[in-house]
Structure formats: structure tokens, C-alpha cells
């Protein structure tokens, strides 16, 4: 829940700015500029068909102006694409959430320490100790010398015997 909320609220803190998508306004600006380029190209095509030798210098000059306008529009489109202002793709947000959760699951104690939280709020200590003993045995937990644990019965009472020094 922590990462889901945090990453969805501030995706820019986790993701690269170049991963942003274009905003709707930017998409519309690009669309308008592309339509304008198309119209300018149509004018160029019409002017080129009119070249018959009589006014070729003036027509050529007009074509150059139109091509320069097209070039300027293409530069503006590239600038818009290089500076997206929209949201981050949902699949990238989900991938980042999954990555952070995997990190926490790999080493939850480190995550708890990193955020200055109290470990007691996250685990049942008695259950944790019993789980360690069930998995590794008493000797592994208490016997720092060699981890061995011998169980010996004396008068019907069982004792765990370990070398601790």
C-alpha cells in the first residue's frame, strides 16, 4: 500500500522524466502542426507544377519560404516530443511498484530500518522466535560455538546441552 500510494502520487520521484507521455494538449499541438505541414507541402506541390519558366524565380522563392516554414514546424514538433508533460505510462508505474515490493520482500528488515520504523510493529516476536527454532533448531540459535544441540534425559527431565564457550 505504501509504494502503491507513493508511486502513484509522485511517479516523478521514482521514474525518469523522459518516460513521460505527451499530454493531450501536446498531442493536439503536434496534430495541428502536422496538418499545417501537409497543407504547406500541398502548396509546394501546386507551385512546382506551375513552374513553366515564366515566373520560376518568384515561385522558387515562395517554395523556399514554405520549406523553411515546414522545417520550423518540424523543429517545434521535435521540441514538444522531447519535453513531454503528460503522465507516466501505467505499465511503468506498475513495474516500479512491483520492483519496490520485491526489494521489500527480499530484505524486509532492511526496509524497516531504512525508514526508521520499529520492527516490533511488523512482526510477532514470539512467533518469529518459534519459527527460527523450528527451522534451524535451538542449537543453531543459542550455541554460537558450533551450533550443536544435544538433548539429554536426567531422571525423566530433558535438558538441552550445548557448548557455549
Architecture overview:
This protein has seven helices and two strands; from the N terminus they run αααααααββ. 62% of the residues lie in helices and 6% in strands. The longest helix is centred in the N-terminal third of the chain and has 27 residues, at 24-50. The two termini are 46 Å apart. The protein has a two-stranded antiparallel sheet. The protein is rod-shaped. Helix 1 runs antiparallel to helix 4, helix 2 (24-50) packs antiparallel against helix 3 (56-82) and helix 4 crosses helix 5. The protein has 165 residues and is mostly helical.
What can be said about this structure in brief?
62% of the residues lie in helices and 6% in strands. The protein has helices at residues 2-9, 24-50, 56-82, 90-106, 108-114, 125-136, 138-142; strands at residues 150-154, 157-161. It has a two-stranded antiparallel sheet.
Alpha-carbon Rg, integer: 35 Å
Low-confidence region ranges = none
Give the SSE string.
Answer: HHHHHHHEE
Tell me the helix content: 55-70%
Structure classification = mainly alpha
- Tally of helical runs: 7
What's the mean pLDDT score? 88
- Number-wise, the strands total 2
Q: What brief labels describe this structure?
A:
165 residues; mainly alpha; two-stranded antiparallel sheet; 7 helices; 2 strands; 62% helix; rod-shaped
Summarize the helices and strands and which ones pair or pack:
Layout: H1 2-9, H2 24-50, H3 56-82, H4 90-106, H5 108-114, H6 125-136, H7 138-142, E1 150-154, E2 157-161
Antiparallel strand pairs: 1-2
Helix pairs in contact: 1-4, 2-3, 4-5
Amino acid at each position: 500500500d505504501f509504494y502503491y500510494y507513493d508511486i502513484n502520487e509522485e511517479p516523478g520521484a521514482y521514474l525518469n522524466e523522459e518516460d513521460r507521455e505527451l499530454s493531450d494538449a501536446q498531442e493536439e499541438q503536434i496534430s495541428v502542426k502536422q496538418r499545417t505541414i501537409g497543407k504547406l507541402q500541398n502548396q509546394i506541390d501546386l507551385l512546382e507544377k506551375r513552374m513553366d519558366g515564366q515566373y520560376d524565380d518568384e515561385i522558387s522563392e515562395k517554395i523556399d519560404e514554405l520549406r523553411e516554414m515546414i522545417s520550423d514546424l518540424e523543429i517545434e514538433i521535435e521540441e514538444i516530443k522531447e519535453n513531454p508533460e503528460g503522465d507516466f505510462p501505467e505499465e511503468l508505474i506498475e513495474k516500479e511498484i512491483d520492483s519496490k515490493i520485491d526489494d521489500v520482500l527480499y530484505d524486509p528488515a532492511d526496509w524497516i530500518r531504512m525508514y526508521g520504523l520499529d520492527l516490533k510493529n511488523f512482526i510477532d516476536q514470539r512467533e518469529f522466535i518459534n519459527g527460527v527454532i523450528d527451522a534451524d533448531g535451538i542449537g543453531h540459535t543459542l550455541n554460537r560455538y558450533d551450533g550443536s544441540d544435544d538433548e539429554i534425559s536426567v531422571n525423566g527431565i530433558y535438558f538441552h546441552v550445548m557448548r557455549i564457550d
